[in-house]
Every structure is written in C-alpha cells, then in structure tokens.
Amino acid sequence: MIEVSGQINAVRRKVGERVLEAGTARTSTISQVYDTGVDDLWDAVTNPERIPRWFLPVSGDLRLGGRYQFEGNAGGTIETCDPPKSFSATWEYGGQTSWVEVRLTPEPDGRARFELEHIAHVDDGMWGQFGPGAVGIGWDMALLGLSIHLATGESAPEQVGPDWAATDEGKEFSRQSGEAWCAAHVASGADEATARACADRTIAAYTGAEQ
C-alpha cells in the first residue's frame, strides 16, 4: 500500500514563468527531500542501471551533449551537467520541445533534496488546456517511484507502474496530485476558475473520469 497523502504532502510544487530567447515560458517545479546523501541521489538519477528502477528504461549517451531516449516517452539532448549538483536537457515528446532542469542540494541534516523544473513555452496548447498538472502529475509519480527505490532499493515501476495507476489507489494519487498542482497554479497568480478547469480536465485524463 502507498501512503498517498503522505507522499503528496512531502512534495513541494511551484508554478512560475521564465523569459527565454523565444519568449515567455511556463515553469512547473517539483521537489522532495530524501533520506540519502547527494552523491547517492545523483547516482540514482543519472546511472542508466538505476534510472529504470524508479522511472523508465533509458538508452543513449548519458553525458554532456549526448542524446537520450526514455522507452515509450520523451527523448532529448543533455545540455548541461555539473555532478553532483545539476543537469539540464531538452524534453522532446509528441512533436513539442520543452526543457527539464534537475538540481540536487544537501540538507542540513545530511539528507538531500531533488528538485526538477519543467519549462515549456506558453504557446504550448497542452498548458492552456491542462495547466501545470499536465506534466506535474507525471512528475509526482516519478518522485513517488524515486521514494520507493531509495527507501527499499527495489524496482518501483513494478509497484507503481501503469497497472497501479489504473487502480483506485493510483487514481486517488492522481486526483490528489492534480489538486495540489491546482493550488500551486492559483498561488502563482492564475485565475482560480481557469486553474480549476485545467485541473478538472487533467485529473479526468489521468483517472479516466468523465467530466
């Protein structure tokens, strides 16, 4: 059993904007503190043998300038890499290109914080229709997988993969995540009715519920 509310509450979420050369972009930032050090956390999120234990199988050249591909999901180019502090990459999926930046920071108690910022152009139709939850719920699931892997050493996708997402527990996780991203959207200054409509569409898409 997954402690759904506990995991949702352990995560910080923030929605914002960033100005890029091509114009204004929306940002969705998610972070969680884990009971491990920065070096182990860096290995967990960059080692191609460990990444599938909490996220997805990955192939390619995982180094600066290299191309990567997640099985059945996004691919891209690794644009920056500063071990064990940070890396960034393009996130190319469905004909759209966005960017992810990952930052690891030590906590005073010896633990480490994982923070991921997903950056997408405002003209991306997905944002207008679904808001930050479009990518946010998926990243919430990834952080859940990372939590399980770091706590147990086991392969999280076997426990919280697509089959789990279709269970009542998995749907409740998506619902609570969607609500949390809705709150972050409103906190960023978005119109509350707009944020609510985006969240309802996103939650329905993830849970299979009819609107």
Shape: globular
Major sheet: 8 strands, antiparallel
Q: Strand tally, please?
A: 8
Order of helices and strands: HEEHEEEEEEHHHHHH
Strand order of the largest sheet: 1-2-8-7-6-5-4-3
Fraction of residues in H or I helices: 40-55%
CATH superfamily: START domain
Whole-angstrom Rg: 16 Å
* CATH level-3 fold name: Alpha-D-Glucose-1,6-Bisphosphate, Chain A, domain 4
Regarding CATH, which class?
Alpha Beta
Family: Belongs to the AHA1 family.
Protein name: SRPBCC family protein
Domain Activator of Hsp90 ATPase homologue 1/2-like C-terminal: 38-125
InterPro entries: ASHA1/2-like_C, START-like_dom_sf
Structure description:
It is a single chain. The protein has about 210 residues and is an alpha+beta fold. It is built from 8 helices and 8 strands, in the order αββαββββββαααααα. β1 (about 10-20) and β2 form a beta hairpin. An 8-stranded antiparallel sheet has the order 1-2-8-7-6-5-4-3. It comes from Actinomadura monticuli. It holds the Pfam family AHSA1. Belongs to the AHA1 family.
Q: Key terms for this structure?
A:
Alpha-D-Glucose-1,6-Bisphosphate, Chain A, domain 4, 8 helices, 211 residues, single chain, alpha+beta, eight-stranded antiparallel β-sheet, globular
Write the layout of secondary structure elements.
Blueprint: H1 4-9, E1 12-20, E2 23-34, H2 38-46, E3 58-60, E4 67-70, E5 75-82, E6 86-93, E7 96-106, E8 112-121, H3 125-130, H4 133-152, H5 157-160, H6 162-165, H7 168-187, H8 192-207
Antiparallel strand pairs: 1-2, 2-8, 3-4, 4-5, 5-6, 6-7, 7-8
Helix pairs in contact: 4-7, 7-8
